[in-house]
């Protein structure tokens, strides 16, 4: 539950997924929910059994579980030991052989889905996109479907995992773009990028999900309130599952009532606020 939103974003940019199952534990509840999300996206799923070196590992039993519970053929599932690197070559060969290439629609007008965004103090909003239709080049005038205004693409590239700058991203590619968008919420995750003046509509966005855990957060130092608010806005760029609204306490002062997907999600957000933004909080 805590990572559902991150999973849904990743799946929307893929043609396939590896279903990694612990050979000593079998299929777990979290595995089921994530796998069903991949099935809904129509992805090719490759089951892989890990930790086969453990004494309690039972690959044959787990393969049968995968077939009976999830409904995926697993008789030929690779058995690996990720710690030692055993069986990894077989997994790589299966990825190349079984997962189809992305569909390419070069002749259509640009439609690029924003699958992640983060804020850079110098570049503004940096968006990780999947180009579904058409292409996007440096110097192109673009629009965000749900926002007003035109932006000029200044940088384009991919991660290999190092940054590699390009002149163009084409249909089927996943890469990043910078267009000097200074408004923190100027390129929301799930939105669509189109050419300026294009009549194309937006692509289907991510499903809206409801918070499961709520907590009131207050800065330890009341003078950090504005910095706290700015930090929350920046976190919300790439974590739209984080929700917040103003909260006031007579004892603790001004803060925010925040909604999270789970307790682990809450811990990660508060840790990021502390580590990345220097905000010390009282929950």
UniProtKB/TrEMBL annotation:
<dbReference type="InterPro" id="IPR004161">
    <property type="entry name" value="EFTu-like_2"/>
</dbReference>
<dbReference type="InterPro" id="IPR009000">
    <property type="entry name" value="Transl_B-barrel_sf"/>
</dbReference>
<comment type="similarity">
    <text>Belongs to the TRAFAC class translation factor GTPase superfamily. Classic translation factor GTPase family. LepA subfamily.</text>
</comment>
<dbReference type="GO" id="GO:0003924">
    <property type="term" value="F:GTPase activity"/>
</dbReference>
<dbReference type="InterPro" id="IPR000795">
    <property type="entry name" value="T_Tr_GTP-bd_dom"/>
</dbReference>
<protein>
    <recommendedName>
        <fullName>Tr-type G domain-containing protein</fullName>
    </recommendedName>
</protein>
<dbReference type="GO" id="GO:0005525">
    <property type="term" value="F:GTP binding"/>
</dbReference>
<dbReference type="InterPro" id="IPR035647">
    <property type="entry name" value="EFG_III/V"/>
</dbReference>
<dbReference type="Pfam" id="PF03144">
    <property type="entry name" value="GTP_EFTU_D2"/>
</dbReference>
<dbReference type="InterPro" id="IPR027417">
    <property type="entry name" value="P-loop_NTPase"/>
</dbReference>
<keyword id="KW-0342">GTP-binding</keyword>
<dbReference type="GO" id="GO:0043022">
    <property type="term" value="F:ribosome binding"/>
</dbReference>
<feature type="domain" description="Tr-type G">
    <location>
        <begin position="1"/>
        <end position="103"/>
    </location>
</feature>
<keyword id="KW-0547">Nucleotide-binding</keyword>
<dbReference type="Pfam" id="PF00009">
    <property type="entry name" value="GTP_EFTU"/>
</dbReference>
<dbReference type="GO" id="GO:0045727">
    <property type="term" value="P:positive regulation of translation"/>
</dbReference>
<keyword id="KW-0378">Hydrolase</keyword>
<dbReference type="InterPro" id="IPR006297">
    <property type="entry name" value="EF-4"/>
</dbReference>
């Amino acid at each position: 539950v805590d990572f559902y939103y991150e999973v849904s974003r990743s799946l929307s940019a893929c043609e396939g997924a590896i279903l990694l199952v612990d050979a000593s534990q079998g299929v777990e509840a979290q595995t089921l929910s994530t796998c069903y999300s991949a099935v809904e996206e129509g992805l090719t799923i490759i089951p892989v059994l890990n930790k086969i070196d453990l004494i309690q590992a039972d690959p044959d039993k787990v393969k049968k579980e995968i077939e009976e519970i999830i409904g995926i053929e697993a008789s030929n599932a690779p058995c690996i030991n990720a710690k030692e690197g055993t069986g990894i070559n077989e997994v790589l060969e299966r990825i190349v052989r079984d997962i189809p290439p992305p569909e390419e629609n070069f002749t259509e007008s640009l439609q690029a889905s924003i699958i992640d965004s983060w804020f850079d103090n110098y570049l503004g909003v940096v968006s990780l996109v999947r180009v579904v239709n058409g292409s996007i080049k440096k110097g192109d005038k673009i629009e965000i479907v749900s926002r007003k205004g035109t932006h000029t693409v200044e940088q384009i590239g991919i991660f290999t995992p190092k940054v590699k700058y390009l002149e163009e991203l084409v249909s089927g590619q996943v890469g990043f773009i910078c267009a000097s968008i200074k408004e923190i919420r100027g390129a929301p995750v799930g939105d669509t990028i189109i050419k300026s003046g294009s009549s194309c509509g937006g692509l289907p966005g991510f499903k809206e999900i409801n918070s499961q855990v709520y907590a009131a957060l207050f800065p330890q130092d009341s003078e950090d309130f504005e910095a706290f608010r700015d930090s929350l806005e920046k976190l919300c760029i790439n974590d739209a599952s984080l929700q917040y609204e103003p909260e006031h306490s007579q004892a603790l002062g001004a803060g925010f009532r925040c909604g999270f997907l789970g307790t682990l999600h809450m811990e990660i957000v508060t840790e990021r606020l502390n580590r990345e933004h220097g905000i010390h909080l009282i929950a």
